[in-house]
Amino acid sequence: xxxxVLVHGGWHGGxxxxxxxxxxxxRGHLVFAPSLTGLAERGxxxxxxxxxxTHVADIxxxxxxxxxxxxxxxxxxxxxxxxTGVASQMPExxxxxxxxxxMVPEISGMSAAQLSTPERAAEVAAARRPDGHTDPTGFxxxxxxxxxxxxxxxxxxxxxxxxxxxxxxTGRQNDVTARDYIICxxxxxxxxxxxxxxxxxxxxxxxxxLDSLHDAMIEVPDQLVALLDPSD
Length: 232
Hints:
Elements: E1 3-7, H1 18-26, E2 30-32, H2 52-65, E3 71-76, H3 79-89, E4 94-100, H4 112-115, H5 118-126, H6 139-142, H7 145-154, E5 179-184, H8 193-200, E6 206-210, H9 216-219, H10 221-228
Parallel strand pairs: 1-2, 1-3, 3-4, 4-5, 5-6
Helix pairs in contact: 1-10, 2-3
């Protein structure tokens, strides 16, 4: 049995992992897919989020109180910054890091906006609301057309400080030596190709291509599970 902790990206919630959770559980694994503070069923706490470090605390506390070790920690999109922050605090609890079309901060305090492309950062900035939170944008690059209306109903605003503030890093995230990067090849334009290209040339990383739009856990959950659990 393997322990998986799945961390969603911006505007989403733990609900987006449901097909992946079901596939992994059917294989006999223990799986956690929490919603981060201020999102999905925790949306009423949106004003309590001080930045991505709040979301790091969400996942770190889950791992502490569930007494989890040797975790396969998976981060999607913005969730890549969160799993990096968790790894920097407790690398001894993590067996493998998996980044799914995700941001990978290497400098403490570097924000998601800084890690993105200027075009995507501007698109997100334009969706910022008067209350400081940010509405979702980019649905056509996330899922197939027949799923867009459903996804619009399921997603919600991202807490205002999450994209502008960076995650705090200690450098200990580099103690986790098993690291995978999965690029979603149908997601174009995308701020994530530069990470894939960087890690493809780095022998300390394993890189994978997944023919999917950005939300691969919704679009191709079975193919994603085959990468997450290749031993089956």
